[in-house]
């Protein structure tokens, strides 16, 4: 099969490297891809959000299957457009992608079907938001833009002044554009967070191994929210008992709810969960693989990724095996200093040969890299993800950090405590 992956970050690189292991995969392309991905796939510079150009290209090159990995093309209906011209594609259609693209849609869905989540109210009038927050008088309070906002549309407000500022940013200044026409105001929940990615074919849901993201820029969960500075899998808080409960109370009800609403979900459904004192609750749904969760989940997948993906498209997931290996994986993100705010680009990356570590021991997933006169340079905030797998989490973390010590570029920033909380949880459990 000749396959196209749409996107250009570390997640897409991890998907490509997993797909390449499939005996059915004979040729793989990525659009737009990036410098490091070009060692593993033929890259084509079409923006991931250009649906018309992507569909025209997919027809021209006669791809047998297209994996739409990024959220915005899914929300724009790229899967619908590909399907309409007879090209099967991995991912939800536009109607099902609303589970991520509209928080109002997903919150109302959870309420209607009794899926546990934070209490909330929806507003389109800034004055009413503030009146509601004042009346509740409970802080912190969480204010979220309705639509996609590059993971930055969630503001946790410690007092009324911060709530006013959040409403101004989202609804008046329109920092996230039309995404801020509506806001969701939510109660603040506490507890460990778990990411569970799952394969869905519209009827059946098969969860993957759990993982833990590290969203803040700095050690000790300090600094600004980022796309994610590192991940570990499995997540030690996600015990078999918790997993059982999530399957019954959250995963199956969500897939059934989407079916009943007439928009069955096919593709990868990402459950962002918080294990609160009242049980597991949904913090967010994403309609795609997580980044950098994918970089620790797929290296532990034993089954053939392409076979499983095709089963989600064809509706045959129930009879398809989805098996994970024992052991653990850790991914450390190497970022450009300053990220998620302003950072410099074009810094030469050293320590890699053809995009990988010559000594092995870890896999390097490229997120923000470019090739300039044959040399790899930085080209984004998150530059590389270094993933190691091992029998145990401490060994995986040690290997990921040791491998990333061999990679250099000017102003490189990484967290030094990825996995620390997971290790503490493991210790407490033993
Ligand atoms: P999101 O972009 O929806 O993943 O939200 C970003 C982060 O904000 C989440 O990973 C949580 O840590 C936090 N968050 C979102 N909603 C809530 C909530 N209701 N209570 C507490 N924390 C939240
Ligand atoms: N790592 C969080 C996300 O992919 O949304």
Automatic annotation (TrEMBL):
- The ATP-grasp domain is annotated at 107-314
| Metabolic or biological pathway | Purine metabolism; IMP biosynthesis via de novo pathway; N(1)-(5-phospho-D-ribosyl)glycinamide from 5-phospho-alpha-D-ribose 1-diphosphate: step 2/2
The record's Gene Ontology biological-process terms are: 'de novo' IMP biosynthetic process; purine nucleobase biosynthetic process
The UniProt keywords, alphabetically, are:
ATP-binding, Ligase, Manganese, Metal-binding, Nucleotide-binding, Purine biosynthesis
Q: Quote the catalytic activity from the record.
A: 5-phospho-beta-D-ribosylamine + glycine + ATP = N(1)-(5-phospho-beta-D-ribosyl)glycinamide + ADP + phosphate + H(+)
Tell me a Gene Ontology molecular-function term this record carries: ATP binding
Identify the InterPro entries for this entry: ATP-grasp (IPR011761), ATP_grasp_subdomain_1 (IPR013815), PreATP-grasp_dom_sf (IPR016185), PRibGlycinamid_synth_ATP-grasp (IPR020561), PRibGlycinamide_synth (IPR000115), PRibGlycinamide_synth_C-dom (IPR020560), PRibGlycinamide_synth_C_sf (IPR037123), PRibGlycinamide_synth_CS (IPR020559)
* UniProt KW Metal-binding keyword: yes
Origin: domain of life: Bacteria
- Report the EC number(s), separated by commas if there are several: 6.3.4.13
Which cofactors are required for activity?
Mn(2+); Mg(2+)
Alphabetized Pfam families for the sequence: GARS_A (PF01071), GARS_C (PF02843), GARS_N (PF02844)
Record's PROSITE patterns? ATP_GRASP, GARS
Family from the record = Belongs to the GARS family.
Which NCBIfam families is this protein grouped with? purD
Q: What is this protein called?
A: Phosphoribosylamine--glycine ligase
Q: What organism is the protein native to?
A: Candidatus Gemmiger excrementipullorum
């Amino acid at each position: 099969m000749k396959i196209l992956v749409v996107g250009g970050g570390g997640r897409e690189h991890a998907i490509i490297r997993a797909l390449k292991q499939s005996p059915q995969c004979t040729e793989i392309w990525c659009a737009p891809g990036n410098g490091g991905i070009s060692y593993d796939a033929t890259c084509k510079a079409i923006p991931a959000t250009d649906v018309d150009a992507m569909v025209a290209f997919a027809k021209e090159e006669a791809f047998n299957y297209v994996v739409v990995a990024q959220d915005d093309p899914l929300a724009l209906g790229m899967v619908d457009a590909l399907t309409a011209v007879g090209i099967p594609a991995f991912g939800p259609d536009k109607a099902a992608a609303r589970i991520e693209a509209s928080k109002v849609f997903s919150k109302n869905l959870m309420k209607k079907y009794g899926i546990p989540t934070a209490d909330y109210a929806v507003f389109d009038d800034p004055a009413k938001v503030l009146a509601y927050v004042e009346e509740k008088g409970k802080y912190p309070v969480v204010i979220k833009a309705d639509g996609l906002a590059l993971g930055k549309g969630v503001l946790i407000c410690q007092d009324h002044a911060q709530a006013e500022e959040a409403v101004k940013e989202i609804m008046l200044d329109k920092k996230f554009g039309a995404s801020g026409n509506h806001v969701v105001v939510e109660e603040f929940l506490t507890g460990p967070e778990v990411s569970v990615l799952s394969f869905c074919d519209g009827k059946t849901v098969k969860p993957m191994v759990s993982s833990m993201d590290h969203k803040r820029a700095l050690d000790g969960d300090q600094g600004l929210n980022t796309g994610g500075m590192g991940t570990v899998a499995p997540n030690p808080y996600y015990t078999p008992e918790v997993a059982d409960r999530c399957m019954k109370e959250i995963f199956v009800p969500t897939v059934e709810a989407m079916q009943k609403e007439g928009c069955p979900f096919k593709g990868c459904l990402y459950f962002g969960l918080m294990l609160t004192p009242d049980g597991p609750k949904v913090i967010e749904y994403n309609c795609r693989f997580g980044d950098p969760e994918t970089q620790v989940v797929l290296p532990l997948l034993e089954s053939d990724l392409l076979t499983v993906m095709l089963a989600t498209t064809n509706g045959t997931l129930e009879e398809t095996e989805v098996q994970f290996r024992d052991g653990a994986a850790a991914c450390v993100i190497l970022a450009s200093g300053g990220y998620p705010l302003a950072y410099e680009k074009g810094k030469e990356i050293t320590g890699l040969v053809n995009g990988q570590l010559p000594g092995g021991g870890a896999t390097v997933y490229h997120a923000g890299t470019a090739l300039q006169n044959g040399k790899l340079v930085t080209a984004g905030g998150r530059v590389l993800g270094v993933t190691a797998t091992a029998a145990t989490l401490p060994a995986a973390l040690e290997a990921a950090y040791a491998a990333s010590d061999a990679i250099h570029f000017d102003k490189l920033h990484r967290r030094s405590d990825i996995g620390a909380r997971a290790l503490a949880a493991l210790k407490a459990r033993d």
